[in-house]
Amino acid sequence: MRHLAMTGSLTAISLMVFHLTPSFSDNLHQALKATYSNNPTLNAARAAQRAQNEAVPQALAGRRPTVNATTSIGLQGQRSFQSGGFGSGSFSDDFRTNSSGVTLTQNLFNGFQTKNNVRSAEASVQAGFANLQNIEQTVLQQAVTAYSDVLRDRQIMILQQRNTAFSREQLRAAQAQADVGEGTRTDVALARANLADSLSALAAAKSALRASEATYEQVVGITPGKLSAPSDTSRHLPSSLQDALFRAGKQNPLIKAAQYNVEAGEFNVKVSQGTLLPSVTLNGNYQRSVQAGTLDSNSDTGSVTANVTIPIYQGGARFSSIRQAKETVSQLRIQVDEARRQVDQSVRASWSSLEAARSQTRSARTNVQASKIALNGLVEERKVGEATTLDVLNAQSNLINAQVAFENARRDSIVASYAVLSSIGELTGSKLDVAKNANIIPTEVHYKKVRDKWFGLRTISGD
């Protein structure tokens, strides 16, 4: 009877141990919102883009006049001497001098360099927006990975904790059987070894969880609370690999950045070519001079001149710079092809990973269900002596391995689904609806504010 009671309790424990019903509250969307606002890598990239935005008003300054004021104050002494005759003697005078003036220079024509500098800067800003979007996708993908890792490692730790509890019960039961002569010392040794393995696996699970939580805090910026399983992203994913490749070719930020870089490079070629054309500037000058002394003297001087400069030969440097700019454009065009291939590979790899992870998840779920049935059956067989302690322990180990494999496969499915979104250019704050109500001024808004500014020292952050 004691033997039947013991095996019955094992059955109850095994059923309790492997039915996981954890309670969660936080979700992935909240984690992505925190990442979007708090991640230092992303915030640093935003600051770099705001600095890049200033290239356009700097280029536009070539269309505007430059005005300078000058002033000088001095003291001058004069001594005059005469010798011989009736007019011999000396004459001296000390006087102060003061001069103030204003100069104005306006570019009228410089071989279209200003216009092309502005267009090059605008294209570079657009390339910067695309690069920032790519960094944003990378950081948000890191957040998804960190979230999924914590979720998985917590589940695995729960499994290992319950596995340890099960192993302790197995050891207690084996010891009790051996004490009454219904079991052997071999069964006790097997149960003790199984408990040692369970404790080792639990320690490893706790270590992995601490590492995952540290990474989560680094990426997201907050300590992970209770996490809920992410919602399915299937409705946001492309319907097929070909659809994914098409969408990636249209909107992936790596390709867009490379294309804008080519555009900027082409305008830089025109800027270099403009150095071979004449330039015309308008110069205005006004100066007032005051001399105070024995004889006060004041004068006002003003002038307006137009200067025309025609380049003839500069040692070949300008021709070399034009050739250099053209070669740079050739390099940038090749980089567009490189970006397309990189994106193509990324889409195919992420799509393949997603399909594999989904298949592994289905297989792992089936394996878990079968392993549970096998364990419960062996526990029942043990009641009537048709199964040994080793059989039960092996079945228990198989179930744990199957459940851990299932958690890994589920994690991989989540990460791979968001990797697909990233590869096609849709893992952004606006697409995921995490940019809304964030305390972040979009860099596009900053660009519009600074583009036509003539004056001002304060940045958008108030510095």
Task: Walk me through this protein's architecture.
This protein has 463 residues and is of the alpha+beta class. Helix content is 63%, strand content 14%. It has helices spanning 2-17, 28-38, 40-53, 55-60, 113-179, 185-220, 241-251, 253-274, 317-383, 389-423, 443-450; strands at 66-82, 89-109, 279-292, 297-309. It is elongated and about 145 Å long. It starts with a helix and ends in a 13-residue tail after the last helix. Mean pLDDT is 87; it is low at 1-25.
Structure, briefly:
The chain has 463 residues and is α+β, with helices and mostly antiparallel strands. It has one domain (2-65, 111-277, 316-450): Outer membrane efflux proteins (OEP) (Up-down Bundle), CATH 1.20.1600. It contains eleven helices and four strands.
Write the layout of secondary structure elements.
Elements: H1 2-17, H2 28-38, H3 40-53, H4 55-60, E1 66-82, E2 89-109, H5 113-179, H6 185-220, H7 241-251, H8 253-274, E3 279-292, E4 297-309, H9 317-383, H10 389-423, H11 443-450
Antiparallel strand pairs: 1-2, 2-3, 3-4
Helix pairs in contact: 1-5, 1-9, 2-5, 3-5, 3-11, 5-6, 5-8, 5-10, 7-9, 8-9, 9-10
How many domains, in number, for the residues? 1
Which range does the strand content fall in?
5-15%
Instruction: Give the full name of the CATH homologous superfamily.
Output: Outer membrane efflux proteins (OEP)
The string of secondary-structure elements, in order, is HHHHEEHHHHEEHHH
**Overall spatial form:** elongated
Q: Biggest sheet: strands, sense, closure? A: 4 strands, antiparallel
Oligomer class: single chain
* Number of helices, counting only DSSP H or I runs of 4 residues or more: 11
- Side-by-side strand order of the widest sheet: 1-2-3-4
Poorly predicted runs: 1-25
CATH topology-level fold name: Outer membrane efflux proteins (OEP)
CATH level-two architecture: Up-down Bundle
What is the CATH top level name?
Mainly Alpha
Number of strands: 4
Percent helix, as a range, is 55-70%
Structural class: alpha+beta
How confident overall, as mean pLDDT?
A: 87
Rg calculated over all Cα atoms? 39 Å
End-to-end Cα distance: 81 Å
